[in-house]
Amino acid sequence: MKKLTRLCTCLILIVGCVSQPIPAWLDKGFDDLERYKSFALIGDDRKASLYFQNVLEEISKSGDLDILAKVYLTRCAVETALLLPARDEEYVKIAAVQSSAGTKAYHDFLTGPSHSLDPSGLPDPYRKVIEVARQGTLSEMNHVVAGIDDPLSRLIAAGWLVRQGKYDEGLLNTAIETASSRGWKRALLVYLERLQSLYESRMDTEQADLLRKRMEILRR
């Protein structure tokens, strides 16, 4: 149904255009989901939680389990971008009742290791990330991630690679630059901390100390 595509585009999984009037519940759900993502990425958990609950209330009015599943996967994706454990319990409950190939592929991507994934059901940027994670160099991984146009998708891909343990200074700096350019303070601090840990593991105390001081200033 074309009238559903505005919400679905912001759910990362599919891209479409709106050619018919959007029901009020769908329009409000879209706006609240955008606010959820913004507040989660800047670090305002109270407002992020409020808007996420608003989204659930609006989408539940339709009884559309496919859209509801995508809402929960959007939360998993944001948590991946923030290097947090992806909370997929609600999605799993929905998938046990109704599931689609697209949502299953995206869920597997967000929660599974690269070697067990079937990338065919994913959008092209994530397919490329999986392919390079399996057989590419760290430099090639960073190149693929840096080439993703959408900032949040870029950060999700970076977070996924970090979870796989496949990252270096270049990838972390890509994530830092992405978060900084969007004003996503929480995400910025998450990747600065990870870069600091990387420098510490290399015994590069000078760079680690500079990052520590930078974060102290940002947290004031």
Can you walk through the features of this model?
With 220 residues, this protein is an all-alpha fold. The protein has a domain at 1-111. It has helices spanning 5-10, 24-42, 45-60, 65-81, 89-97, 101-111, 124-135, 138-146, 151-163, 169-182, 185-201, 205-218. Helix 8 (138-146) packs antiparallel against helix 9 (151-163) and helix 10 packs antiparallel against helix 11. The protein is globular, with a radius of gyration of 18 Å. The chain starts with a helix and ends with a helix.
- Described by the principal axes of the CA atoms, the overall outline is globular
Number of helical regions:
12
Order of helices and strands: HHHHHHHHHHHH
CA gyration radius, whole angstroms? 18 Å
Q: What's the SSE blueprint?
A:
Blueprint: H1 5-10, H2 24-42, H3 45-60, H4 65-81, H5 89-97, H6 101-111, H7 124-135, H8 138-146, H9 151-163, H10 169-182, H11 185-201, H12 205-218
Please give a quick description of this structure.
This protein is mostly helical and 220 residues long.
List keywords for this structure.
220 residues; 12 helices
